[in-house]
């Protein structure tokens, strides 16, 4: 997928004029099974006290009811998923949104949705923020604005010991799993085409609706390997009791961004300011460290920071 990460779609998948067409990425609903949230340490997920100067930056249309309606596809642990015990949407993405919203005097209200419906929902006013591990890329910037907050790449995993000898640089003939709608779909397709051009067998591509399904396929041996965003693969290895292992090195690092509708006025500036406050007071680092994803932390968030 070029230099994009998990939630990026290839150029051309957006129809800017008229309806937006996106590839689906995970189903809605709130019953999807996912690992339970790690025990709270460090910063609480409770929203910090509102800062008057930041709250004043929020457009009246958003702050009038005190709520921030957030679209999220909760099928991507540890970023965003449904806790099977409480049935609540949890994850470090979720806690970070709650913390920033609190700085703006808002209470985040998460709505589980299909990944492909979130950006169109921002355009229609259904959602006021999209937080679903979106990669900030040039195609998406045509229809929404982004506030960058994390850096992720693509990583591969196999069963412990890599019994099928999967090589990310030459997976020809292997059965490889990936979640639909993600940048990794295009990545594995391109790798498979390179195999056939070289006279080798194509990659058997197994595309599933949710990443948790891909993880389960790999643990059960239905596939030989998988690829996904680096924090997701790392968390899968941890949550499966080391039944899996990361193979090779992460690549195509790119920024995650909170998605904000183009018609939201100064809200993107308010959200950026709130994120900077959460970084300054240590909450950002505490949340990422709590969930074990601190390696992707950034220090200089920006509005629309797509690479290339």
UniProtKB/TrEMBL annotation:
Signal peptide positions (record): 1-24
SMART domains: PBPb
Family annotation (Pfam families): SBP_bac_3
Alphabetical keyword list: Signal
Source superkingdom: Bacteria
Location of the Solute-binding protein family 3/N-terminal domain: 67-295
Official protein name in the record: ABC transporter substrate-binding protein
Organism annotation: Nonomuraea mangrovi
Lineage: Bacteria, Bacillati, Actinomycetota, Actinomycetes, Streptosporangiales
């Amino acid at each position: 997928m070029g230099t994009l990460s998990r939630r990026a779609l290839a150029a051309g998948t957006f129809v800017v004029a008229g309806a937006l067409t996106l590839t689906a990425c995970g189903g809605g609903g709130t019953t999807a099974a996912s690992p339970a949230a790690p025990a709270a340490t460090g910063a609480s997920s409770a929203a910090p006290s509102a800062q008057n100067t930041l709250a004043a930056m929020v457009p009246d249309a958003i702050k009038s009811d005190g709520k921030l309606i957030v679209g999220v596809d909760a099928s991507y642990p540890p970023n965003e998923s449904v806790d099977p015990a409480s049935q609540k949407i949890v994850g470090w993405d979720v806690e970070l949104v709650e913390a920033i919203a609190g700085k703006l005097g808002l209470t985040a209200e998460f709505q589980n949705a299909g990944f492909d419906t979130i950006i169109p929902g921002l355009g229609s006013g259904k959602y006021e923020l999209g937080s679903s591990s979106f990669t900030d890329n040039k195609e998406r910037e045509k229809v929404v604005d982004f506030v960058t907050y994390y850096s992720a790449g693509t990583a591969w995993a196999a069963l412990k010991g890599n019994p099928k000898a999967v090589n990310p640089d030459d997976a020809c003939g292997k059965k490889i799993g990936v979640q639909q709608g993600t940048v990794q779909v295009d990545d594995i397709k391109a790798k498979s085409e390179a195999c056939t051009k070289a006279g080798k067998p194509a990659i058997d591509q197994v595309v599933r609706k949710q990443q948790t399904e891909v993880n389960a396929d790999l643990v059960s041996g239905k596939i030989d390997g998988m690829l996904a965003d680096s924090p997701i693969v790392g968390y899968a290895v941890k949550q499966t009791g080391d039944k899996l292992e990361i193979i090779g090195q992460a690549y195509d690092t790119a920024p995650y961004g909170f998605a904000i509708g183009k018609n939201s006025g100064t809200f993107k500036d308010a959200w950026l300011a709130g994120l900077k406050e959460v970084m300054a007071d240590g909450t950002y680092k505490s949340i990422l460290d709590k969930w074990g994803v601190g390696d992707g932390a950034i220090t200089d968030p920006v509005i629309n920071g797509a690479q290339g």
